């Protein structure tokens, strides 16, 4: 997507052909900084410290991390070490493990001398596949938006989203934002309510930044505003992303998603989840019971970072010294609260049978 008229993806291979460039998302929206990853450890740290974040981008970064590792040590033990280092970088988004399993399946059977080249080629494929998947999500989600638009001709369609499931969270286009960008491109009148998404503020800092750069009308709202807007008919539909969807259709996403789904249910607002198929975890049968929920540092809750009027980026404490805090990064929305799953293969019912019918090759792969 475009940043000040220049096309960017969130991650890419640098001109030297081997190092990896990525936008440092910790610095947005205050500064646009490119980071260079030159080792497997760099990739692991980038994921862990949220220089990159968002389930599909975490997967893509891990894939390149494996490629970087193969330059250093392509032996069987080097492969295992890289896998083991990267797979624990963050616990909730299943795209991380999915990408690493794909890489290992390509690399393990071949001669170590061929592994580095094969790893870059497979990582590039994973990256291109993400872009293609998101194009599919864009087209399928657009149909939903067009259906709503047909019911209120000439009026603005209001979409609520939570966290950042935009192009910064994927390689390009985004998942939840893909249909929004396409609708905007096609000239539909669309406006996005952007949940700020405490404590990391992915909505306020990233989604708003993206939408602004694309000229998509949007309004940032405090996280607790969605219910009020829905009660007053100010939200036509909600679209969120996800870090892992269980085989039963339960959806794990950024903390606070569940409360938005409850409010949507209570107010008859359609609640959709945009999801690329690598985000489905067929090995998990019950999302609430079995998806591991990341708990992050309390500093994310006690401290806030922003830019002062004179342009300095500063961090300040907003919680009294000594007050304990809790920082659960994700929650699980039960399938019964989800209207539909927008995938690259169509909009699916959030249940086991529909997911299995749409992605039979994933079931067969085990
Ligand atoms: O903690 P983050 O910023 O990695 O969490 C990101 C989200 O929760 C996104 O909504 C999710 O990964 C979907 S990204 C297309």
Structure characterization notes:
By secondary structure, the protein is α/β, with parallel strands linked by helices. The chain has two domains: 2-129, translation initiation factor eif-2b, domain 1 (Four Helix Bundle (Hemerythrin (Met), subunit A)); 138-365, Rossmann fold. The chain has 13 helices and 18 strands. The protein has helices spanning 40-48, 55-72, 76-87, 95-107, 112-151, 177-185, 202-213, 226-231, 257-267, 287-290, 299-302, 352-358, 360-365; strands at residues 2-3, 6-7, 11-13, 20-23, 34-37, 157-161, 190-195, 218-221, 237-240, 244-246, 251-254, 271-274, 280-281, 303-307, 313-317, 330-333, 340-343, 346-348. Strands 8-7-6-9-12-17-18 form a seven-stranded mixed beta sheet, sandwiched between helices. A hairpin with a 5-residue loop joins strand 14 (303-307) and strand 15 (313-317). Helix 3 packs antiparallel against helix 4 (95-107). The longest helix has 40 residues, at 112-151. The protein is globular. It catalyses: 5-(methylsulfanyl)-alpha-D-ribose 1-phosphate = 5-(methylsulfanyl)-D-ribulose 1-phosphate. Keywords: Amino-acid biosynthesis, Cytoplasm, Isomerase, Methionine biosynthesis. Pathway: Amino-acid biosynthesis; L-methionine biosynthesis via salvage pathway; L-methionine from S-methyl-5-thio-alpha-D-ribose 1-phosphate: step 1/6.
């Amino acid at each position: 997507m475009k940043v000040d008229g220049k096309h960017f993806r969130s991650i890419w291979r640098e001109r030297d052909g081997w190092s990896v460039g990525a936008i440092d998302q910790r610095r947005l929206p205050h500064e646009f900084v490119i980071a260079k990853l030159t080792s497997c450890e760099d990739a692991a740290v980038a994921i862990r410290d949220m220089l990159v974040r968002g389930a599909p981008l975490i997967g893509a970064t891990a894939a390149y991390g494996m490629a970087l590792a193969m330059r250093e040590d392509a032996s069987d033990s080097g492969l295992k070490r890289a896998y083991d280092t990267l797979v624990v970088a963050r616990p909730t988004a299943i795209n991380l493990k999915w990408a690493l399993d794909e890489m290992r399946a390509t690399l393990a059977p071949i001669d170590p001398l061929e592994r580095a080249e094969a790893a870059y080629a497979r990582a590039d494929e994973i990256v291109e596949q993400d872009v293609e998947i998101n194009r599919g999500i864009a087209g399928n989600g657009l149909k939903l938006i067009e259906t709503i638009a047909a019911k209120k001709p000439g009026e603005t369609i209001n979409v609520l989203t939570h966290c950042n499931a935009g192009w910064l969270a994927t390689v390009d286009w985004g998942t939840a934002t893909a249909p929004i960008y396409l609708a905007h491109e096609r000239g539909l009148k669309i406006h996005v309510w952007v949940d700020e998404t405490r404590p990391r503020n992915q909505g306020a800092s990233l989604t708003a930044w993206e939408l602004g750069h694309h000229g998509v009308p949007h309004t940032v709202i405090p996280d607790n505003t969605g219910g009020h807007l829905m009660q007053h008919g100010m939200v036509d539909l909600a679209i969120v992303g996800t870090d892992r969807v269980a085989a039963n259709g339960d959806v794990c996403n950024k903390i606070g998603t569940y409360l938005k789904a409850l409010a949507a249910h209570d107010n008859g607002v359609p609640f959709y989840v945009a999801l690329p198929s690598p985000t489905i975890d067929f090995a998990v049968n019950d999302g609430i019971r079995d998806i591991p929920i990341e708990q992050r540092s309390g500093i994310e809750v006690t401290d806030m970072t922003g830019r002062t009027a004179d342009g300095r980026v500063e961090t300040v404490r907003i919680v009294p010294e000594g007050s304990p805090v809790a920082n659960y990064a994700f929650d699980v929305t039960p399938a019964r609260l989800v209207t539909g799953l927008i995938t690259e293969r169509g909009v699916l019912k959030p249940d086991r049978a529909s997911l299995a019918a749409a992605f039979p090759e994933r079931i067969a792969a085990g």
